[in-house]
Amino acid sequence: MNKTTYKLALPLLLALCGCSLSAPEPLDERSLLAEVEQSLSSQVEVGTTVTVRQLMTRTTEGDSDIADVLVELDEETPLLRDFAQPLDEPALRIESLYRAEYAYEDKRWTMTRLDKLEDAAVRPKEGVNVMALTSPMGRTYVEGAPKERYWNLEFDRQDTDLDNGTDTVYLRKTSENALLTEGGTIKYSYVFNEGTGKWELAEESVMDDWQRTYHIAGQWEYEGENDRVTLTISEVDANGEMTIRMDSGWITAQILSGIDTKTSWKAKTSEERPFVFESDETSYAITIPDEGETNVIKLGEYLFRRR
Length: 307
What we know:
By secondary structure, this protein is mostly beta strands. It is 13% helix and 47% strand. The chain is built from four helices and 19 strands. Strands 15-14-13-12-19-18-17-16 form an eight-stranded antiparallel beta sheet. The radius of gyration is 37 Å and the shape is rod-shaped. 15% of the residues are buried. The model is unreliable at 1-20 (pLDDT under 50).
């Protein structure tokens, strides 16, 4: 067979055997996106909706086809949240970039890989779980205290801005024990962290309606090995100041001996240290241990109980 005859016969042979010198026709875009959506839908949790938004880029070379697609995952928002569910993990709407890789095998295109490249946007669909903040246990741990302080918690309001990723919760908190009554509104400010997909507490602040009333007026007693010391404490005024008078056998003896002995002074608390009464007149401070839960006070290192 001469060269001219070979050139004429080759196309005829290829046509007869169904072969082609051209690359295989790639999947149409609609079929590709539908297959990606179906594959991802089988991988996510029940209730999460997968929507393939658009084809971003595509490279087809011979029997290889690589497509980057934008996908939205829309998690189901529970109708009701409860105390046991996390405070900071909302349902999310996530836009992610996925890469689908296809290979042409056995006369058909087969998806060989589907990987997430990055999250393009992560947005919350709901604010923080307020129910977790208002736990019915109502207890706040006081470090080093033998008892936990009980707080009555009541939801006031919630201001959620999903577009800007902020959430503000207002709670009414009240607590009362033998030594003090305290309560008012607490403001919890949260910001959404796209990196973790969680709400994070940015600030916790006490509102102007917060009030604290002390119930330590009266007589308190410390009994040592050789002496008994009594403190008589006045009511705490609006400025957080009170008067203390101290009596003991040793003090009486000092006074009878003509020794100038200080037996009374004023002490004041502060917003920074609400459980400590300090004075410019003496180095001793009156302290309310454990935020009043143990119903004792301390003068220096000495423990006093109600008389």
